[in-house]
Amino acid sequence: MADHSAKGLLRSGATVKRSVRAFEDRTRATLEELQSQFSRQVDSRGREGKCAMRDLETALTEHIAAAPQILAKGLRAAGCDAEAEGGRGSSIFRAFQNLMRGVSQRLLEEQHLFRDEWNAPPGKSWIERNKIKYGIIAAIGGLLLAKGSDLVIAWLNEPESPPIAMQPLPQGQKSSK
After folding, report:
1. Residue 16 and residue 61 in one domain
2. What is the dihedral of CA 14, 20, 22, 25, to 10 degrees?
3. Are residues 113 and 139 in the same domain?
4. 1, 43, 74, 155: most buried, per Cβ within 10 A?
5. What is the DSSP code (8-state) at residue 171?
6. Is residue 176 part of a domain?
7. Looking at the whole model, is its pTM more than 0.85?
8. Could you tell me the residue range of the domain that residue 79 belongs to?
9. Do 100 and 134 fall into the same domain?
């Protein structure tokens, strides 16, 4: 602001443009930082990812809507007090609104591109998510295989007496199958 004052640019559109540009640059830097944190912390595009993305967009929209209050000092220096009677009807405030529409459109578009192009890291496999269940199932499977192999080995060692299920039926009986 001091350099604008020295150049005689206060109470002009240049002050509004500079304030809006600073607002956009700082908002974009913060948005990029939040997107970076989002990418590191959210594991999937599922419910958690959608909720976080929606929260990020809501926060951005609310921040943009608060621009007149955030930039009140710059607007006053440009000759527009948005809070004063008639301040929102001035040509400076209308120019500010036009600039903010462009800022809003660009920032929201960047957020939508991030949302649509963001690739979640691959999800964890069922085994990684259910280690205890997998361990129990593997142990039971191992026991069943061991017991089954014991039966087969026992049968192979005594071929003259196969297990009951493999014994021939007595004459005159039919299979139940």
Report:
1. yes
2. -130
3. no
4. 74
5. T
6. no
7. no
8. 2-117
9. no
Q: What is the C-alpha to C-alpha distance for residues 33 and 29, in angstroms, rounded to an integer? A: 6
Can you tell me the distance from the alpha carbon of 73 to that of 76, in angstroms, rounded to the nearest whole number? 5
The residue to which tokens 């949302």 are assigned: 115
Q: Are 82 and 75 in contact (CB under 8 A)?
A: yes
Triad 123, 129, 133: Cα angle to 5°: 150
List Cβ<8 Å contacts ≥24 apart for 34-40. Answer: 35/111, 35/114, 35/118, 38/118, 39/118
* 30-45 pLDDT, tens digit each: 999 988 888 777 766 6
Which DSSP state fits 170? Answer: P
Could you read off the pLDDT of 61-101 as tens digits, one per residue?
Answer: 999 999 988 888 877 777 776 555 545 557 778 888 899 99
Identify whether 175 is part of a domain: no
Q: Indicate the number of domains in the chain.
A: 2
